[in-house]
């Protein structure tokens, strides 16, 4: 059984019972005590449950960590993802860049050698690219404080009239069962619109997003062409995603 499958099974049983003992999980999963403890530790780090003495209790899907926290969390991995994603852009491309801290790291290393058109709903991404030769369009819409992202009816209406070669989107969580999910309904809707209008959909997400189900669904994994992540994603999860026809690129942390 893959680790992600164990995570989903643990979560389902926690939703049914509210709590589970380590011994119950050993029998349920058919794995060692150490494997159960490691899974619980990693699930707690992902915000999926709370460890207690002898077991775990369910932690409900809540608010996304603040922008300030996410800016410093897994920063080296996000920088590695940004560098790896550069291989997916060619001179003359028209691309969409989503909001988010991983996308910002991508924008920081994006220095187009030729013509490049960028469409974005992120004020910070647009400001970062203002110093480059890229032609930048912004969606407009309702500004989300702190995140500096735009969404809502105006953003949706504008985006429906654009078509791009590649849409680079963010994710609050990624699982085989639920696909790409996010914490914000309005931004999830905007992502669905741009994915439909993109010749290629690429998700940028560090390894901590895998095995996590956020509040609302964005798209199934079958709607994604490429996932760019870091080397922290286990090989078994990589293989399971590739089996769905999704290419996985793993960026290496430098130094």
Automatic annotation (TrEMBL):
GO molecular function per UniProt: DNA binding; DNA-binding transcription factor activity
Gene3D superfamilies: 3.40.50.1360, Winged helix-like DNA-binding domain superfamily/Winged helix DNA-binding domain
Domain HTH deoR-type: 3-58
Coiled coil: none
UniProt xrefs under Pfam families: DeoRC (PF00455), HTH_DeoR (PF08220)
Keyword annotations of the record: DNA-binding, Transcription, Transcription regulation
Protein name as annotated: DeoR/GlpR transcriptional regulator
């Amino acid at each position: 059984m893959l680790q992600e499958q164990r995570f989903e099974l643990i979560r389902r049983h926690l939703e049914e019972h509210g709590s589970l003992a380590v011994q119950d999980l050993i029998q349920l999963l058919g794995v060692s005590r150490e494997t159960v403890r490691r899974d619980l530790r990693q699930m707690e780090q992902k915000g999926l449950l709370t460890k207690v003495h002898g077991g775990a209790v369910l932690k409900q899907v809540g608010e996304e960590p603040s922008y300030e926290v996410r800016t410093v969390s897994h920063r080296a991995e996000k920088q590695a993802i940004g560098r790896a994603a550069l291989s997916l852009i060619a001179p003359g491309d028209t691309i969409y860049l989503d909001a988010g801290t991983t996308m910002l790291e991508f924008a920081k290393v994006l220095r187009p050698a030729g013509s490049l058109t960028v469409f974005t709903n992120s004020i910070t991404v647009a400001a970062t690219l203002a110093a480059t030769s890229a032609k930048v369009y912004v969606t407009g819409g309702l500004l989300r404080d702190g995140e500096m992202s735009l969404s809502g009816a105006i953003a949706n209406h504008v985006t429906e009239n654009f078509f791009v070669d590649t849409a680079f989107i963010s994710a609050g969580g990624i699982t085989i069962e639920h696909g790409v999910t996010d914490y914000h309904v309005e931004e999830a809707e905007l992502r669905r619109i741009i994915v439909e209008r993109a010749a290629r959909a690429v998700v940028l997400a560090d390894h901590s997003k895998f095995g996590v189900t956020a509040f609302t669904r964005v798209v199934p994994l079958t709607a994604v062409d490429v996932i760019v992540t870091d080397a922290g994603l286990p090989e078994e999860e990589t293989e399971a995603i590739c089996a769905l026809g999704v290419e996985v690129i793993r960026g290496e942390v430098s130094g």
